[in-house]
Amino acid sequence: MTNHGSQGFRKVAHPSPMPDPERIELIRNPGFGRAFSDHMVTITWTADRGWHEMTIGPRGPLSLSPAAAVLHYAQEIFEGLKAYRTSSGEITLFRPDMNARRFALSAERLAMPALPDNLFIESVEALTSIDRAWIPDGEGSLYLRPFMIATEPFLGVRPAAEYLYVVIASAVGPYFSGGKSTITVWVSEDYTRAAKGGTGAAKCGGNYAASLTAQAVASAEGCDQVLFLDSAEHRWIEELGGMNIFLVFEDGSLQTPPIGGTILPGITRDSLIRLAREEGRVVREEPYAFDQLKADVASGRLREAFACGTAAVISPIGKLKTTDGPIVIGDGNAGEVSLALKRKLVGIQRGDVPDSFGWLHKIA
C-alpha cells in the first residue's frame, strides 16, 4: 500500500525544529524511547461531534484538567509500530493495518470510541512523512506511539464523553542495552499479569503498570524481563511483561501460548507464526505448563526459547531464573531457529527479503 497524502490534517508550522547537526548526533546512538522527533498528531473526539480537529504540528506538552478522566479511571490505550528506511531508500511501515485493528479492539474493551482504521493509518503515515529525517541509518528505526486518553473533566465511574488521540515518534536503536545476544528471564511466582475477563488482550497502560513490581523483582535478580504464569492455576506459561514467548523443540517445531483473552495478540507473534509455517515448520498455539518446560529442558527436547515484540523483534532467551535456581535453555546461547526467523523478519521489514505476504506499507 502507498500513502496518498495527509490532506485531512491541519498543519501547524514548527517554529524551531531541531537543527540538522543536533538531530544527526542525537539519532546516531539514540537508545530506546528517549530521542523524540519534532512533531506530533492530535485528533479530538467528543460525543456530539465525533472525530475532529485533525492536526499535525510541533510536539509539545498536553493541556489537561486535573479532573481529566484518564487520571482517575485509567481510560487509556496505545500502540507501537516502527517506520524503517530500506536499503533502497524507501520509507516503510510494517503491517500498520494490524495495529489499527488492535487499537480499535483495545478501545472497545476500555469503553472508548474506535478510531477508524483508515484514520489510524493516515495519522502514522503523516507523522512518519514529516519526521522522516528522524529515522536513523543502519539498524535503527522510528518508533511510533499512537495513544488515546479520556480528557473529559469529571469524577464519576462511567465512560468519558471526550477523548484525545495522539501520535508521537522516537528514533530508536536496540531495545535491550548493550546489544545482548540472549536475555535472562525471571519467572514470577507472586504476581500475575492478567485474568480471564480482564484487559489482558487490550494494549492499555494498566496492564503494564501491573507488571512493574514483578519487573522490579526481575531486575533485582539480574534479569532482563519477567515471565508470567496464568492467574488461575499459576501453572501455564502466558507471556512476558512486554513480549510474547515462543518455544522451539528438537524436531524444529514451535509452540506459543494461545490467544484467549489474557495474552496480547502480538503482531510480531502473528508474523512469526506465518513465517515459520511458510517454511514448513509445525507451530502449535497451545497451553504449555511451566513444569513441562522444566521436564523438556532436562530431557533436551526443548532447545530454544525466545521473546518477541515490535520493540525488540526477537530476543533469544538463554536462561530462566526461579526461586529454585536457574534453568538454562539449550546451551544458553541464541538458537539457530530463533536467529533465522529474526533474520527473515527483519529482512522483510527492511526490504532485503521479498515480502510475499504484502506486509510492507510504503510512505510516498
From TrEMBL:
Pfam families: Aminotran_4
Keyword line: Amino-acid biosynthesis, Aminotransferase, Branched-chain amino acid biosynthesis, Pyridoxal phosphate, Transferase
CDD domains: BCAT_beta_family (cd01557)
Pathways involved: Amino-acid biosynthesis; L-isoleucine biosynthesis; L-isoleucine from 2-oxobutanoate: step 4/4; Amino-acid biosynthesis; L-valine biosynthesis; L-valine from pyruvate: step 4/4; Amino-acid biosynthesis; L-leucine biosynthesis; L-leucine from 3-methyl-2-oxobutanoate: step 4/4
Entry keyword Ion transport: no
PANTHER family noted in UniProt: BRANCHED-CHAIN-AMINO-ACID AMINOTRANSFERASE, SUBGROUP IIII AMINOTRANSFERASE
Chain's role: Acts on leucine, isoleucine and valine.
Record family assignment: Belongs to the class-IV pyridoxal-phosphate-dependent aminotransferase family.
Protein name in the entry: Branched-chain-amino-acid aminotransferase
Organism: Zavarzinia aquatilis
